[in-house]
Structures are given as C-alpha cells and as structure tokens.
Write a structure and sequence with these properties.
Belongs to the pyrroline-5-carboxylate reductase family. Keywords: NADP. The structure is a single chain. The protein contains 11 helices and 8 strands. It folds into 2 domains: about 160 residues, Rossmann fold, CATH 3.40.50; about 90 residues, Orthogonal Bundle (ProC C-terminal domain-like fold), CATH 1.10.3730. The two termini are about 30 Å apart. The chain is an alpha/beta fold. The radius of gyration is 21 Å and the shape is elongated. Strand 5, helix 5 and strand 6 form a beta-alpha-beta unit. About 55% of the residues lie in helices and about 10% in strands. An 8-stranded mixed sheet has the order 3-2-1-4-5-6-7-8, with helices on both faces.
Length: about 270
C-alpha cells in the first residue's frame, strides 16, 4: 500500500508524523509532495525512507490512497486538473470541512472520504472525524477507520454536524489553549506567582483532568461537584465564570458557522453542486 500526501503544511505534516510514529504507516510507504518543496523535504530529513516528489501527478499515479491536505479553495482546481489520474481502484481523502464527499465524488471516479483530523492526533490522541462517500468501497472504509485508529478515536459523522464537530475536535484545542493562557495571565497579574510556575501548574492540571475523564473516574458535571464544595473557594470562582462567560460560547459557534457559510458558498461556486 502506497500513501500519497499532497500538501505537507501544518496538518499534512502532523498527519504524516502521527501515522509514522503511531506505527500505522512505514515511512517507505509514503510519497509526499508540496507546492513549496522544502516543506516536504523537511519530513524526508526526519524520516529518510519517505519519498518526496515535485509532481502531484506522479504522487497520484504511484499511490493507492491519496490524502489532499490543501486549503478548501485549492481542492477544486487540483481535482479538475488531475481528475483522470484518480482511477477507480484508488481512494481519495480530503481533510478540509467545507468540501463535502459528494463534491469530491462529482470530480473523481474513485472512493472518497473526508477525514478531519485534530492537532491532538500528533500525540496519538483525540478524535478524528470520518465521513464516507456514497460510492466508497467497503475495503476502503475499513482501511481508513483502522488507519486513524492508530492515532485517534475515529468517529463517523454526517454532513449536518460537520462544522460543530470540527469546532469541538479540531478548533477546540486552540480555543482552550487561549482560555488557559488567560487563566495563567490572571494568576500572574493578580498574585505573586511567576509565569513559568503558573504555566507548569496549569499544564499539569489539564493533563490530569484529561486522564480523569479518559479513565472514566468522573463526568464533567460530577467532577465539578467533587471540587466545588458548597460555600467554598471554588464556588466563588465558578460564580465569576458564570457571570463573565454568559453566552460567549453560543457566540463562538455563531461566528465559526458564519465563516463556514462563506467557505461553503465559495466551494459551491467552484463545484456547482
């Protein structure tokens, strides 16, 4: 099995590194290409057996499974130019949310899958979101699901929850990194703790929180109940959060969905479906 990676920017590189380090794919099975070839060559320096080519056509020709890791508005021109190269026995995987599997299938004759990864997959953790095309062969469904199981918990979703699922899984790490940084800023600004110590404590707290949830000791509500003793210090902090956060997350999802609609419209104008 040969795996083609078209696009080795942030997510393309993260996926490649995760697949290799998670023992899902051997470096020798990967053919990578990128518009800026140096980015693909950086991966090759890290994994010597990985093959780099300057040609998208060559990557598609020599790969059985092809990941397209480019920006949403770059997918249509790529498929339009190389559609005939995606022969029926191959499988195409797009990692971008605005382009549906139906739109992919309208341009190529091979099996199509949308797989939305998360930066957490780099740690062989978190969730990846899988949507299969109507014409996707069963053997490819099984292979893709197993492949992502090496680096994440793959979850199959429908189109109607693509954006919100991606907000939680893919954008969520950035949102909660921002909140954690503000948490640290508040501690440093209001007390005598230094930033390095506060950052270490906050980071270890998040790791511990994740382990509690992963091992099933508590749900989010029961965990809060355990820590938040009635009339205690934690409860006073929760009151501030309840007052300050208000409907901020509702507004967050409204903003991401509004931007998503813009991307969908641009993609729709390209694909015409």
């Amino acid at each position: 099995m040969k795996i083609g990676m078209i696009g080795t920017g942030n997510m393309g590189s993260i996926l490649t590194e995760a697949f290799i380090e998670g023992k899902a794919i051997s470096p020798s099975a990967i053919i990578a290409t990128n518009r800026t070839l140096e980015k693909a060559q950086r991966l090759q320096k890290k994994f010597n057996e990985l093959q780099v080519t300057a040609s998208i056509a060559e990557t598609i020709k020599n790969a059985d499974l092809i990941f397209i890791c480019v920006k949403p508005h770059d997918i249509y021109p790529l498929l339009d130019k190389y559609s005939s190269s995606f022969s029926e026995e191959k499988c195409l995987v797009s990692i971008t949310s605005p382009v549906s599997v139906g739109q992919l299938e309208s341009k190529v004759n091979c099996s199509c899958v949308r797989a939305i990864p998360s930066i957490t997959n780099r740690a062989l953790a978190g969730v990846s979101l899988i949507t299969y095309g109507n014409k996707c062969e069963g053997r490819w469904k099984e292979y893709i699901f197993n492949l992502f199981s090496f680096i994440s918990k793959p979850i199959i979703i429908e189109d109607n929850i693509t954006r919100v699922s991606s907000d939680i899984v893919s954008c969520g790490p950035a949102f909660f990194s921002y909140l954690t940084q503000r948490f640290i800023d508040g501690a440093v600004n209001e007390t005598e703790i230094d930033r390095e110590t506060a950052t270490t404590l906050a980071g270890e707290m998040l790791v511990g929180l994740g382990e509690l949830l992963k091992k099933g000791f508590y749900t989010l509500p029961t965990l809060q109940e355990k820590v938040c003793v009635k009339g205690g210090i934690t409860g006073e902090g929760i009151k501030i959060l309840e007052y300050g956060i208000d409907d901020v997350f509702e507004k967050l999802f409204q903003a991401t969905h509004d931007k998503f609609k813009e991307d969908l419209e641009r993609v729709y104008n390209q694909f015409g479906n």
